[in-house]
Design brief:
The structure holds 2 protein chains of 2 kinds. By secondary structure, chain A is mostly helical. Chain A has 3 domains: about 90 residues, no CATH class; about 90 residues, no CATH class; about 300 residues, ABC transporter involved in vitamin B12 uptake, BtuC, CATH 1.10.3470. In chain A, about 70% of the residues lie in helices and about 5% in strands. In chain A, strand 1 and strand 2 form a beta hairpin. In chain A, helix 13 packs antiparallel against helix 18. In chain B, helix 3 runs parallel beside helix 12, helix 4 runs parallel beside helix 5 and helix 12 crosses helix 13. Chain B contains 13 helices and 19 strands. Chain B is of the alpha/beta class. The chains are: A mainly alpha, B alpha/beta. At the A-B interface, helix 5, helix 10, helix 11, helix 14 and helix 15 of A face helix 2, helix 3, strand 7, helix 8 and helix 9 of B.
């Protein structure tokens, strides 16, 4: 109660001051509204935005944009609102004149979510007539969301002048949404509006139809309920497509994490518990590359991942070769010792990274072409997931080609199939072992580059993937790259179709149980292959 | 007798690196105190393993506070000596290390633990050996123990005010309670669900979702939240998602285009430290509820931040809420010891309730008979630079409730170690030990 009273007093006080201060300037609605920014309360700022937008003043859009970018400042002492230009130059928002000396008490006009919503709504109605078609489209979307009644005249003008089909549709949808919110609109108009919103068919349309004001007449209500039903039916179909897409995306991540393991575990038969740490090293390589690019060549940031991929391959590959030469080669044929040694190694690597880079997460940015999303029908496809799927498939094809068409690949396959025979044909099997392990680790490093885009880069990054990777390789069939591919995507899609019904926790458990049952039936996985793992 | 540090006594392979660091710090701190008798303070925070991400900072802040106190002449004329151990994010090891600290190193007090499960694991040790633990992290409540002092927030000092803010300022009518699947989110969400229902929110307007630790594929859940939010009522997400899972969650929100103006997310476990690893631009306007933010402008806070950056020799180190809890807790312990002129646990435990210490946000926090403290509650919006902009705060300080008033099992319980000498006194049956849930 006190608060309301206080703010009322403050308001009266501010208005009083404003009248006194602004009277000689022949204050219009624009100046009156500007002065409300001085009250430094969110509700006054909210009202000020509405007032500035409605004033039709030439500076209105600039003021609101400045507020959006937090460049709008105020000086309570001299009662002026100041716009800070992109270059830091200060101008008086009321007159547009440059400010000679900045007032000492200049502070930001504060904004919160409520103010941000008001800004979006105001900019929406202000830019409905923008010469840029894209801006007009965005403005229409903003009005559709804000359903601000005062935008109606501007909407009508904009619809009459609009030439682009797509923008006109968006504008009419926005108009329909506004009409549905109006209390005094005619019933026939409202029914037409329901039909327009229904044709939009997405979740935003549901939000409009579900949020009709309480006094809406019964026939309109019924039409809206029918429309909601038909949109939901349509969306239910799309949600199947969406699950499949999410499954593909999860599958590609599993694939990426597991493909290196498919070589070290699948082909060589080494139970490498430090595999996840190779992924982590790749992610940290990306971080270091980005740090260098950020400080020295900021213009190249969009290329940072392209630079990081070969480097991550080299870093993880060299560490992998070091591990093979230093530890694993002494332990061939002793799976239990290998498991324990590599497990210990994984802890050493984690702690080494923790000591070097600190225990906290490191920020790896996304290049501009990996940020954001686009819509296909009623599902949202994010660019980073799309590129990760493409990248996974590229890595897979490259790896297959390497094994099939290069000398190294030929020697690897020879050693895997029959070590003694390969050795007697002059292949240096020890060298091939090291290179194979290096290749598997290097691929894991590349996976780290991609995973740094969706997961957090911390010393624990690898731990989260190690179990899943083994699951994929064992399920797909040890020693078979195609098995890994099919295994990863099967598990991904199965997980995503279970998740909406069972929840994330149960879905994961269910998948684990299913794999255990499957392994009982087919102990060698989906695609069993002969190899050293089988011989041993 | 001087012992460098407990870790150094028996290093195993896992803790090698942390041990070396701990030893160096221990030596550096303890050497001037070698000649005279010291008061030992145990620091029980994970320096390796999953929780190192959060707990290492708390070890650093304790070392700084002890260092500072020593510069002021120590306590009761004696220098303080830090004993750092590394429980390595391993819950049973917490209990072992706690026992080691109390029996072998004879520490007077322990500052430590982060997760509730680690606290529950050391509890029997502190009870059996009668020592003192200061626990600095916001937690699910439903506990009041004689040997533990809770300087973090209870649910009524964080979760409930945050929900009130959303309902009032953002006019939220539909709620998604999303959390990691363990005791803190489960209990907090149970409390919030009961609270929301008591405020007239229908069951169909509440969606509860749990995910495993370290969950990284948020596509389905974010899509579900979007769907839940399209019912024509203002929707918000109350997040008790813990630790590493937050980064991919926020990234997915940003990628799917959910802005704070559409569906705001208020988080109870995301602070300045966690945001240091994320590109915060897509998160503008999402919220967090804490009892301290680095961005709060008070002389005490400015001084603390300056000292902290100087101590860590890193101008980019941020400060966060649990750090402030240790600052307040440590000051309270020093005051209590000086009041009773002894470090005897029984005397200090009796002296602590009623002790006041300034917090960094300009108020005076007080230790309550239920061993929780009074705290201000702030709601902050994420800014582009990874800091928070305070958009709302409580008037005055909120006393912490050990037992939630919202849950049927605990609404009659109170903790009072001063007059009733009981942590779970049932006000209806007038009996101690009326354990509810």
């Amino acid at each position: 109660m006190h608060k309301i009273f206080d703010s009322a007093v403050a308001l009266v006080f501010v208005i009083g001051l404003m009248i006194v201060a602004a009277a000689p300037l022949r204050a219009g609605p624009y100046e009156d509204s500007l002065a409300r920014f001085l009250a430094d309360s969110y509700s006054d700022t909210d009202a000020a935005i509405g007032g500035v937008a409605a004033s039709g003043h030439v500076m209105a859009e600039e003021v609101i944009r400045a507020l959006q970018d937090r460049r709008l400042m105020m000086s309570p002492g001299s009662k002026t609102i100041v716009i800070k230009g992109a270059s830091g130059a200060l101008r008086n928002a009321a007159t547009g004149q440059p400010l000679a000396a900045p007032p000492a008490d200049l502070t930001d006009v504060r904004i919160n979510n409520r103010v941000r919503r008001a800004i979006d709504a105001a900019l929406g109605s202000l830019t409905l007539l923008s010469p840029d078609a894209r801006r007009r489209f965005e403005a229409a979307q903003a009005v559709f969301k804000s359903r601000d009644e005062s935008a109606l005249p501007a909407l009508d003008t904009a619809i009459a002048k609009e030439i682009s089909q797509g923008v006109r549709r968006a504008l009419s949808q926005a108009r329909a949404a506004v009409i549905l919110m109006q209390s005094d609109a005619k019933e026939a108009d409202k029914l037409a509006a329901v039909a327009i919103v229904r044709d939009r068919g997405d979740q935003d349309a549901l939000a409009v139809l579900g949020g009709l004001p309480a006094e809406t007449a019964a026939p309109v209500r019924k039409a809206a309920a029918d429309a909601v039903g038909s949109i939901q039916n349509n969306l239910a179909l799309w949600s199947g497509v969406q699950n499949a897409w999410y499954g593909l995306s999860l599958g590609s991540v599993l694939m990426l994490a597991a493909i290196g393991l498919a070589i070290t575990f699948g082909v060589m038969g080494v139970i490498n518990m430090a595999h996840g740490e190779m992924v982590m090293l790749g992610a940290y390589t990306t971080f270091v590359v980005q740090e260098i690019i950020r400080t020295s060549y900021p213009g190249l940031f969009d290329w940072s991942l392209a630079v990081a991929i070969p480097l991550a391959f080299l870093v993880a590959g060299i560490v992998g070769i070091g591990i093979e030469r230093g530890i694993i080669r002494f332990l061939y044929g002793r799976p239990l010792e290998t498991l324990l040694a590599t497990w210990g190694l994984s802890l050493v690597l984690q702690q080494a990274v923790r000591t070097t880079f600190g225990p906290t997460n490191r920020e790896v940015g996304s290049p501009s072409w990996m940020s954001g999303a686009f819509e296909v029908g009623q599902i949202t496809i994010t660019y980073n997931r799309l590129w990760i799927i493409v990248f996974t498939l590229l890595v897979f094809v490259a790896l297959l080609a390497l094994l099939r068409f290069t000398r190294l690949g030929l020697e690897m396959r020879a050693v895997t199939q029959n070590r003694a025979m390969a050795a007697s044909m002059g292949i240096r099997t020890a060298r091939i072992d090291a290179l194979t392990f290096g290749l598997g680790s290097g691929i894991a490093g590349i996976a780290g580059v991609a995973l740094s885009q969706i997961d957090n880069v911390s010393p624990n990054l690898g731990q989260g993937y190690i179990i899943d990777s083994f699951m994929v390789v064992v399920f797909g069939g040890v020693g078979n790259l195609w098995g890994t591919l099919v295994g990863a995507f099967t598990l991904g899609i199965a997980n995503k179709f279970l998740e909406p019904y069972a929840g994330a926790v149960l879905a994961k458990i269910a998948i684990l149980v299913l794999i255990i049952l499957f392994i009982q039936k087919r102990p060698r996985g989906m695609f069993a292959l002969r190899g050293r793992a089988v011989e041993a | 007798m001087f012992k460098p540090s407990a870790v150094a006594a028996r290093p195993n392979r896992r803790q090698w690196l942390a041990a070396t660091a701990g030893l160096a710090l221990g030596l550096a701190l303890a050497s001037p105190a070698k000649a005279q008798e010291t008061i030992k303070i145990g620091i029980l925070h994970s320096l390796s393993g999953t929780m190192a991400i959060s707990e290492t900072t708390l070890k650093d802040v304790m070392l700084m506070l002890i260092d500072e106190q020593n510069k002021k002449g120590g306590v009761l004329g004696k220098k303080l000596e830090a004993v750092v151990v590394d429980p390595a994010s391993n819950w049973p090891l917490f209990a072992e290390k706690a026992r080691e600290l109390i029996t072998k190193d004879k520490v007077s007090v322990v500052f430590g633990c982060w997760t509730s499960v680690s606290r529950k694991s050391v509890l029997p040790v502190f009870k059996e050996l009668n020592s003192i633990l200061f626990y600095p992290v916001q937690y699910e409540g439903e506990e009041s123990e004689r040997n533990v002092f809770y300087t973090g927030a209870a649910p009524n000092q964080q979760a409930i005010p945050a929900v009130d803010y959303l309902a009032k300022e953002e006019k939220v009518q539909r709620w998604v309670l999303a959390g990691t699947d363990y005791v803190y989110p489960r209990t907090t969400n149970k409390i919030l669900e009961a609270y929301l229902k008591s405020k007239g929110v229908a069951a169909s307007d509440i969606m509860i979702n749990y995910t495993p630790f370290g969950h990284s594929d948020w596509q389905t859940i974010v899509a579900d939240i979007k769907k839940f939010g399209s019912a024509g009522k203002k929707t918000a997400v109350v997040s008790t998602i813990n630790g590493d899972a937050n980064v991919p969650f926020y990234k997915e929100l940003g990628n799917q285009g959910i802005k704070a103006t559409d569906i705001p997310v208020v988080a109870f476990s995301v602070g300045e430290e966690e945001l240091a690893g994320i590109d915060t631009k897509p998160l503008l306007g999402h919220l967090a509820a804490w009892n301290y933010f680095e961005s709060i402008k008070t002389p005490a806070n400015a001084e603390f931040i300056k000292k902290w950056k100087g101590f860590t020799k890193n101008s980019k180190r941020v400060s966060n809420d649990p750090m402030e809890a240790h600052v307040v807790g440590f000051a309270m312990w020093v005051k209590a010891v000086e009041t009773v002129k002894s470090t005897d646990p029984d005397k200090v435990i009796d002296a602590l309730p009623g002790i006041e210490a300034p917090n960094l946000t300009g108020g005076m926090s007080k230790m309550l008979p239920n061993h929780h403290i009074t705290k201000p509650v702030f709601i902050g919006e994420i800014k582009a630079d990874g800091q928070f902009d305070v958009v709302w705060k409580t008037e005055g300080l909120v006393p912490g409730d050990a037992w939630s008033k919202e849950l049927p099992g605990s609404k009659d319980l109170i903790g009072d170690w001063v007059t009733l000498r009981c942590g779970n006194y049932n006000t209806v049956t007038k009996k101690c030990g009326g354990q509810g849930t």
